[in-house]
């Protein structure tokens, strides 16, 4: 699975921004194939209620990952948790309602590895937001104890990594058909077809769909579409010399209008507008610092 994580490193909408209230930490080598990153606030901080609604709402775009998130409000002594499945449309986070001392800790899983940590089958639809113990009951309490006991994100990561490694012990990855199918999709940057995946894996399209739904919760076709979108977004962010015509050709679209409409469906705005917003600087939901 290390090859998969090397092929696919998704980014979010505000990759170029910086924030003192957010950082990402790359997992240890043993967890790198399974986890994109740990993320959250470096330490508890005082948030501020925004007087302008849009400033406290943060755009989240599809990144093909699934997240477990824990939020602590130290003023109310409240601990909330959330599991976010794969999303296939952009959305905004909730507005900040009041000023408080808060802390956030999240685990962003690579989509092909989430089932190794879950207690039951993943949701069979995108855009599900539910309590963590609906799918990770055995993990939830242990992670909550760590998040409560340690206030520093680095301390949290250290202890959570040990917990996740114990979880993986004696639970080897066994479905080679899923791995091969995902590898082909990532290698093609999503610009492939179900027929090509079936030919590469020597597995029927019907069986592939069953496998993907069982282990990931989405179809191979949806997986291709999301991976392709993420690669286009990365090209727009990092390869500013590419034209829209280049992107249209590189990713197998029939015409430029199709590419733009497809991108807008996942991003919420056109490629031109998205880069313009990125350059102006957007808020810091996540994906801002890497340590």
From TrEMBL:
HTH araC/xylS-type domain mapped to chain residues: 176-277
Entries under Pfam families matching the protein: DUF6597, HTH_18
Coiled-coil residues: none
InterPro entries: AraC_XylS_family_regulators, DUF6597, Homeodomain-like_sf, HTH_AraC
Entry superkingdom: Bacteria
GO MF annotation, one: DNA-binding transcription factor activity
Assigned keywords, A-Z: DNA-binding, Transcription, Transcription regulation
Entries under PANTHER family matching the protein: HTH-TYPE TRANSCRIPTIONAL ACTIVATOR RHAS, HTH-TYPE TRANSCRIPTIONAL ACTIVATOR RHAS-RELATED
Protein name: AraC family transcriptional regulator
């Amino acid at each position: 699975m290390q090859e998969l994580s090397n092929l696919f490193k998704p980014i979010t909408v505000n990759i170029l921004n910086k924030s003192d209230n957010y950082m990402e930490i790359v997992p240890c080598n043993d967890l790198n194939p399974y986890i994109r990153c740990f993320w959250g606030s470096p330490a508890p901080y005082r948030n501020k209620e925004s007087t302008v609604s849009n400033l406290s709402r943060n755009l989240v775009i599809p990144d093909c990952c699934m997240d477990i998130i824990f939020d602590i409000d130290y003023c109310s002594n409240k601990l909330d948790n959330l599991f976010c499945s794969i999303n296939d449309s952009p959305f905004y986070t909730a507005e900040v309602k009041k000023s408080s001392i808060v802390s956030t800790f999240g685990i962003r899983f690579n989509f092909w590895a989430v089932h190794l940590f879950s207690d039951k089958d993943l949701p069979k639809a995108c855009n599900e937001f539910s309590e963590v113990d609906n799918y990770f009951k055995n993990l939830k309490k242990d992670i909550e104890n760590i998040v409560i006991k340690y206030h520093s994100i680095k301390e949290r990561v250290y202890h959570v990594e040990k917990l996740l490694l114990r979880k993986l012990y004696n639970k080897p990855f066994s479905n080679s058909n899923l791995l091969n199918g995902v590898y082909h999709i990532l290698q093609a940057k999503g610009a492939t077809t179900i027929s090509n995946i079936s030919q590469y894996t020597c597995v029927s399209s019907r069986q592939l769909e069953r496998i993907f739904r069982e282990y990931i919760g989405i179809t191979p076709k949806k997986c291709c579409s999301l991976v392709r979108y993420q690669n286009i977004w990365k090209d727009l962010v990092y390869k500013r010399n590419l034209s829209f015509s280049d992107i249209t050709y590189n990713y197998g679209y029939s015409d430029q209008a199709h590419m733009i409409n497809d991108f807008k469906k996942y991003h919420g705005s056109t490629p031109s507008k998205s880069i313009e917003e990125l350059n102006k600087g957007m808020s810091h939901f996540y994906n801002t610092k890497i340590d």
